[in-house]
Amino acid sequence: MTSRQIKTIFSCNCQSCGNQISKGEMVWYKKGYGCRCLTCGKHNESAQRSKHSSRQPKPAPAPKPFIPANIPQWPDTAFETQQEKEKSIPFERDAKTAVKCSDGVYRYEFQSVTECVQSALNYETAQNEYNKTWLNQELDSSLSGLSKWANYYTKERFLNDLQNPPSHIVDAVSQIKEHITEEIGFVAQTLRRKVRRGCEFGDEIDTDKFLARNPLLWDRTVREMADKKTIVIGCNLAISGKRKPEDLLYRGAAAVALAEVLGSRGYNVGITLFESRYYPSDKMPMYVTSVIVKEPNHSLDITSVSFAMAEIAFFRICLAIGAMRYGIGKVDSCLGHPRLLPQTDAAQVDYYIDSDVFSKEQAIEWVKKCMTKTEREVQNV
């Protein structure tokens, strides 16, 4: 029996990464091997049989997370009420913190990429002393040049590439753009036809006016610029810590390429980055961070946005670590787990590419769907 996609009828854990899978989610299932989340993909040859199978060996105990000794310990005392617990935790509440919305999701928004980077590198920002110490140590480790998780970046190279993206990122954007312009062959309609009547010259004669000897007897067809439509593109950068840099490369490149093509066709295009994860702290079951990369009425500069959207180090340093400076509660040692974008956030954009896209082929397929939808809308105008 091969792997197949099913909808779970009860909560379970992924047999690959161990993350919790909620009831009703789509998963990969194989008899005798249990369920795997969509992020981990189909069962491969190295997949182990589930714990419900008699052939499954007893798993080794999970290693305890390493916590440096100089991080202040989180209070672990029993409290009578939640209010008493809140007062006992030494919070240093900033004016800016994640806000709990009506759907139960905590959210925080950065107004620009620059603001996002500056906040991530600000060692003084955090909501409590434990988080401040923990996040600062993670930041130093990630920018040491020795961290595989952060693609071996140093602070100097990170800031330089932010302004001058590496060639492989620019090339990825160009490759996706070629598929848009060549394979799809999409041309947006920026002009509209309008018939003006009662002209001194034109294309057709109005018979009634001719018989009445009216000199303004011509009808003329003219072309006018159509009103520019605004399109907002969203990109969910959330990705597992086990994923490689190339797994995020084409996801962001596809969003940038689509924005550039639509902008050249006369659309006002905005770009917003998202990062959606669950349980990044003990008080936030769901946390969505957004970054406004480009306002619809601003021009698009590929060099200023491609690194933020396609480099995995930006996501892990500025969003996975940096956004937690505004999160409440005790930060999780894994910084939470990636999730698909909630419908509330997806509804705020016209097109969005989610956290389940990892390859060039998947990115191109997403672009095709967006362009096909846009082409239908243009034809209906």
Distance between the termini: 49 Å
* DSSP E strands, number: 15
Number of helices: 11
Measured as a percent range, the helix fraction is 25-40%
Average of per-residue pLDDT values? 81
| Shape summary | elongated
Largest sheet: 7 strands, mixed
Structural class: alpha+beta
Give me the Rg, rounded: 26 Å
Proportion of residues in extended strands: 15-25%
Instruction: Give the count of structural domains.
Output: 3
Reading the helices and strands in chain order gives EEEEEHEEHHHHEEHEEHEEHHEHEH
Poorly predicted sequence stretches spanning 5 or more consecutive residues: 76-95, 186-191
Description of the structure:
This protein is an alpha+beta fold. It is 32% helix and 21% strand. The protein has eleven helices and 15 strands. Strands 6, 7, 11, 12, 13, 14 and 15 form a seven-stranded mixed β-sheet that branches. Strands 1-4-5 form a three-stranded antiparallel β-sheet, with no helix packed on it.
Record the SSE blueprint.
Elements lengths: L3 E4 L4 E2 L6 E2 L4 E5 L3 E3 L45 H7 L10 E2 L5 E5 L2 H8 L8 H14 L12 H9 L3 H18 L6 E9 L4 E2 L1 H5 L6 E8 L4 E7 L9 H19 L3 E14 L2 E11 L7 H9 L1 H10 L15 E2 L4 H4 L4 E3 L6 H20 L2
Parallel strand pairs: 7-13, 11-12, 11-15
Antiparallel strand pairs: 1-4, 2-3, 4-5, 6-7, 8-10, 9-10, 12-13, 12-14
